[in-house]
Amino acid sequence: MLRVENLSKHFGGTQALKDVNFEVKPKEIIGIIGPNGSGKSTLLHTITGIHKPDKGSIWYEDKNITSIPLEDRARLGIGRTFQNLRLFKRLTVWENMLIPAIQLKKSKKDMEEQASELLNLVNLTHLKNEQAQNLSIGQQRLLEFIRAMMLDSKIVLLDEPTAGFHPNMIQTFIDTLLELNRRGKTFVIIEHNIPAIMEVSTKLIAIAAGEVLMSGNPEEVHSDAKVVEAYLG
To answer: End-to-end CA distance of the chain, in Å?
Structure first.
């Protein structure tokens, strides 16, 4: 579904990514872990078109998308969320949900049914008429997560989705993610919350200093000596 080949990226004299390779298959949940500054967010930015790689290629559904604009990648079915919340803070929760779907030219009925179901999944229905800025940080992150689903993206890249969550909210996020995955969504997730990423990932990728240290079974990656030294230790 998504394939990254020999992806490299420099910022001045700093190498943010070095020959990164991995593949995402349909309905997988790929977790990406690594210390701060390891290149995780740069990797997502490069896949989605915010950064242009210095070397390597990105393939989506057998199409080389390395040079196409961010907007075109989104239209192909690649969605994402960001570390820094990008909600319309003065609009209501309901309005935030409907805005992304308008560009897809869905019927009003379909948009509203989808928005209602997603809000119900994350227990935000009672706040649908509240301005987004009045929600807690955790609630805002849940809103941004389900708002991304309104675009009907086939694969969604999540950058630190549980940052700022109350512990009780983490389970809501996990349950929602797994339910959407059962419905066919594919996810790539950057996350520092190791218990959460271990619970949801079908495959784990550990990176440090812009390089992939190991990828594969989450338990094996989690316990690998190189990973423990670079990140968990």
So the answer is: 33
